[in-house]
Structure formats: structure tokens, C-alpha cells
Amino acid sequence: xxxxxxxxxGRLTRQRIVAAATEVVAEKGALGASLDEVGARAPASRxxxxxxxxxxxxxxxxxxxxxNDTVLDGQRDLFDxxxxxxxxxxxxxxxxxLQQERGGQGGCPIANLLGQLGERDDxxxxxxxxxxxxxxxxxxxxxxxxxxxxxxxPDADAAWLASSTLASLQGGLVLSQARRxxxxxxxxxxxxxxxxxxxxxx
Length: 202
Known about the structure:
The protein is mainly α.
């Protein structure tokens, strides 16, 4: 791992490099992204790149971490309200609305990187897996709170429901991306919400 910056200026430089690398990877793929292009876009010299990152793989690992944060931080306010039926619905609607804005393009950035790098570098795979873990934990926390409040039955398995919901979400994103049709995600999330609703009391 390259040097971790100890100054504000250094931290800003490293963040700028990671942001540029994330853009290049999104446009050209992880394997097609070159350090020269990242440096030109940052802008940053070769010596700066190698000061903060050992090599391209080290930089891609930082891109994976940044991608996790971008995807999850973008849902932070929604995650805070997954403990109610309305909150669950708003979360699902927001994800579908985003795909509608994009015309079904893009899919899940975490899954996209996993597909490109997961079988090539185990450390990057683990970073991206941790992003999915954080996503699932947020869903599980909301569902567990619904069990506590009586919105779901005491025997409802929040962990199982959260895992199933995340799997439905990811499958819906893949189909929406392949078909350029957000309806696939809408149906996948409606199915997940129906499964959760089947655990309501009475």
C-alpha cells in the first residue's frame, strides 16, 4: 500500500487521484484504465501516483473502497428510515427512480467492479464484498427494528429477509441493465417487499 497522506494537501491530492481513477474506470473499465490517463485527469504526476499507490492494483483497491462509499452514502438518509413500511417503500422507489433517470444503464457500481476484478484480485473482491455486507447490515437493522416495534412478527428472520432483499435488488439491477428497462428492478423490489409483508402479524 502506498503512503497514507499526513497533511490536508496530501489527502486532497490522494482523493483527487482516486476520483479521477473512478471516472476513468467507469468509462473504460478497470482493465482499460491506464495510470497515464488517471494522472492526466487528476491532474497528478507519475511520482505522485506512485507516492500514494504502489501500482495500478493498489489504486483500483482504493477505487473499490470509494465506490462502496459512494453507493452506500447515497442511500444513508433512506437507510435511516428502513424501520417503517413507508421508509421501505421510499427506499425502493428511490432506487427505481434512479434507474428510470438512467434509462436502465449503469447497474450497480459495486457489482460492476466485482465482475471485472473479483476473480483477478482477492483483496479487491473482499473490499467489494464488504460493501455488500454494509448494504445488507443496513437493511437488516431496519427490519430488526420492525420486529422490535411489532411491525413484523417476533419469529420473522430479519437476517434472512435482508439477504433475500439484497439479492432481489442486485438481480433486478442486472436485468434492468441488460434490458435497459427499470421495470425489472421494480418487479424485483416489489417481490422483496411482498416477502417482507408476509411476515406481518396476523
